[in-house]
């Protein structure tokens, strides 16, 4: 059984094991083969590129690399973190290890960087990490690494679906937290053909001045 190192929380361990099992499949979460997922990634990329050129970006949770592959060519530097080593390994293999991308196995609640990022992308990740307090901790950690004037692109299934899947909250809850510190610039809500295909994407601006 694959275990999350240093974690004693049963729910987090279950989520970690679930991610490992799903990543063992050919197309995890149908991120490549499902038209809904392809459109979701196309909109995430549009939101990510809505600002100026991306000097340094952070992607939180790469899954099997479907979105990382789209984002990387637009970044001078891209840091990719995922708590599951298999996700990092699959994405690196898929992309043939481009030199401007850094790969780090890390927990979003604990990862830190001296470099500030002008873009952070975090999608379909935060509902895996535990309760509301853990979500808030992860958001606070990300905001410490977001450069003044930088953008954060967030995506998630809605609260109702996340709770149906056994998680505590989803898009609406996290967006409310992000709006406490950031300025929401744009929001997209769209649905696919199944009940599970119902998500929200949003782009936020960090209004904090560097001075």
From TrEMBL:
Q: Show the GO MF annotations.
A: methyltransferase activity
Q: What superkingdom heads the lineage? A: Bacteria
**Which GO biological-process labels does this protein carry?**
methylation
Q: What is its EC number?
A: 2.1.1.-
UniProt xrefs under InterPro entries: NodS (IPR020944), SAM-dependent_MTases_sf (IPR029063), SAM-MeTfrase_NodS-like (IPR008715)
Question: Matching Pfam families, A to Z?
Answer: NodS
Keywords from the UniProt entry: Methyltransferase, Nodulation, Transferase
**Function per UniProt:** SAM-utilizing methyltransferase involved in nod factor synthesis.
UniProt family annotation:
Belongs to the nodS family.
What's the protein name?
A: Nodulation protein S
């Amino acid at each position: 059984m694959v275990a999350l190192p240093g974690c004693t929380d049963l729910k987090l361990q279950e989520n970690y094991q679930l991610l490992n099992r799903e990543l063992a499949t050919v197309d995890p979460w149908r991120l490549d083969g499902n038209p809904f997922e392809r459109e979701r990634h196309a909109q995430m990329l549009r939101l990510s590129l809505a600002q100026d050129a991306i000097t340094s970006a952070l992607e939180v949770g790469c899954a099997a690399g479907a979105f990382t592959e789209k984002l990387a060519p637009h970044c001078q530097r891209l840091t990719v973190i995922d708590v599951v080593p298999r996700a990092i390994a699959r994405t690196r293999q898929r992309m043939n290890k481009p030199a401007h991308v850094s790969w780090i196995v890390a927990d979003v609640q604990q990862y830190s960087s001296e470099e500030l990022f002008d873009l952070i992308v975090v999608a379909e990740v935060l509902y895996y990490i535990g309760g509301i307090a853990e979500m808030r901790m992860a958001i606070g950690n990300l905001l410490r690494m977001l450069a003044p004037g930088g953008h954060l692109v967030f995506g998630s299934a809605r609260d109702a679906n996340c709770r149906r899947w056994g998680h505590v909250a989803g898009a609406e809850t996290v967006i409310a937290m992000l709006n406490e510190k950031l300025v929401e610039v744009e929001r997209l809500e769209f649905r696919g053909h199944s009940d599970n295909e119902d998500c929200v994407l949003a782009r936020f601006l960090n209004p904090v001045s560097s001075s």
